[in-house]
Write a structure and sequence with these properties.
It holds the Pfam family adh_short_C2. This is Beta-ketoacyl-ACP reductase. It comes from Bowdeniella nasicola. By secondary structure, this protein is an alpha/beta fold. The chain has one domain: 3-Layer(aba) Sandwich (Rossmann fold), CATH 3.40.50. Helices cover 45% and strands 17% of the residues. A seven-stranded parallel sheet has the order 3-2-1-4-5-6-7, sandwiched between helices. Helix 2 runs parallel beside helix 3. It is globular.
Length: 234
């Protein structure tokens, strides 16, 4: 079992919580990010997920410094919300390039080690909107739903080599982004969630930790909804 884990978007929110949890579980964690600091103990690497050469170079450096990559948690993403009638092609393409194609670039780079070592855990962070839909989020929902098809295709291709690919679909999570929402909007969202609250980032990280573990070897191509019941498994 290779204990080097790469987490993208590791400097804030859910990615930071995932990094902290994997460190606590004994992984050597390489945080891939563009700015900011990482939790103590994590190894910092910078990359632009929209640039294939940048991603490839970062993974080569991680491999040289920390050894083969055994776990990839693809968490980094952006939003450029807007109503369909007003959404520009540039905003649609930018979200797909980071959230979907950027994930592909990372998976392709990490899979080299996993196939060679015949062991790997790939966890893609999607969203409840992937199957539930999101008002003003045609681009984001398209990218996040694409991750499900990506993971399931990877699972079929690499499953026989000891590599799993799964998806976490979080609902609303207590992060800087949701903290800036107006109280009325937060109350409306919470009224639709059976749990009646937003998730703590650590609750998403706990689900990731299981899928990243050796114990999850027979869980492959699945979507784990961590949304308080909002999506009801759509």
């Amino acid at each position: 079992m290779n204990t080097t884990a790469v987490v993208t978007g590791a400097n804030r929110g859910i990615g930071r919580a995932i990094t902290t949890r994997l460190l606590a579980d004994g992984f050597t964690v390489a945080g891939l990010h563009r700015s900011g600091d990482l939790p103590e103990g994590a190894h910092s690497y910078t990359a632009d997920l929209t640039d294939a050469a940048s991603v490839s170079a970062a993974f080569e450096q991680i491999r040289a410094d920390l050894g083969p990559v055994g776990v990839l948690v693809a968490n980094a993403g952006i939003t450029k919300d807007g109503l369909l009638a007003r959404m520009s092609e540039e905003d649609f393409a930018a979200v797909l390039d980071t959230n979907l194609t950027g994930t592909f670039r990372c998976v392709k780079a990490a899979a080299k080690d996993m196939m060679r070592e015949r062991y790997g855990r790939i966890v893609l962070i999607s969203s409840v909107v992937a199957t539930y839909g999101g008002f003003g989020q045609v681009n984001y929902a398209a990218a996040k739903s694409g991750l499900i098809g990506m993971a399931r295709s990877i699972a079929r291709e690499l499953g026989a080599r000891g590599v799993t690919a799964n998806v976490i679909a979080p609902g609303f999570v207590e992060t800087d982004m949701t903290a800036s929402l107006p109280d009325k909007i937060v109350a409306d969202y919470k009224s639709r969630i059976p749990a009646g609250r937003f998730a703590a980032p650590e609750e998403i990280a706990a689900a990731v930790a299981f899928l990243a573990s050796k114990d999850a070897g027979y869980v492959n191509g699945t979507v784990v909804n961590v949304d308080g019941g909002l999506g009801m498994g759509h």
